[in-house]
Amino acid sequence: MLLATIFLVSRGVDPNSAADVADLDPAQMARAPRIASARFAGMTDDATALTISASSVRSAAEAPEAGPLELEFSHPEAVLVFPDASTARFTAKDALLDQKRGVLHARGPVALENSDGFVLELGALNAALDRTRLTGSGGVNGHAPAGDISAEAMELTRNGGADGGYLLAFTGNVRLIYIP
How much is the pLDDT for 3? Predict the structure, then answer.
């Protein structure tokens, strides 16, 4: 009885006051629907686990009925776990997943770090979705286990050797300041 009285006596709700509290534009949300706190996971052909999460994801263009997608990620974070249990992780301002080309284009600044002790900042980074391959461009700066490093570009690939290891190569005006 008391609960029913509270609801009967309570004030009415002003729908106009709710708009002041919510910082959302319903018309914009209807034009460009998105998924909040999205997470995608998969495995490359060479057994690297890839997980991509983002604060929001939306279709980059008119979504086809079937076929490859293009998705835009806001503040993506990707984690790669290699078969030897080593890892690489990168974050970016935004990214475009192009399923037709099989690549995630992360736009900068992009922060990349791996379990071997590299902490890098890049202008842009492309991650292949079908195999282990990261290519960075737009300048690379950061810290390596041996010291500070800068270059125009970098590439992380599987080295193809019997040990199943990975190769991180820097190209274009590479500078390493050795810190013993």
Answer: 47
Q: Which residues contact 164 (CB under 8 A, 6 or more apart)?
A: 83, 84, 158
Q: Which amino acid is at 54?
A: A
Q: What is the pLDDT of residues 14-55, one digit of tens each?
A: 656 555 545 556 666 666 677 888 899 999 999 999 999 999
SS3 category, 77: strand
Residue pair 38/122 in contact by the 8 Å Cβ criterion: no
Helix (H, G, I), strand (E, B) or coil at 34: strand
Strand partners, 20: none
Q: How far is CA 128 from CA 25, 60, 176, in A?
A: 35, 18, 27
User: Is the Cβ–Cβ distance between 158 and 166 less than 8 Å?
Assistant: yes
Hey, what domains does the chain have and what are their CATH numbers?
26-178 (2.60.450)
| Tokens read off for 171 | 């190209």
At 142, phi and psi to the nearest 5?
Answer: 165, -160
For residue 9, the surrounding DSSP H or E stretch is: helix 2-9
Distance CA 127, CA 106 (A): 8
Query: 99 CB contacts (<8 Å, ≥6 apart)?
Result: 68, 69, 70, 71, 129
d(CA 121, CA 125): 10
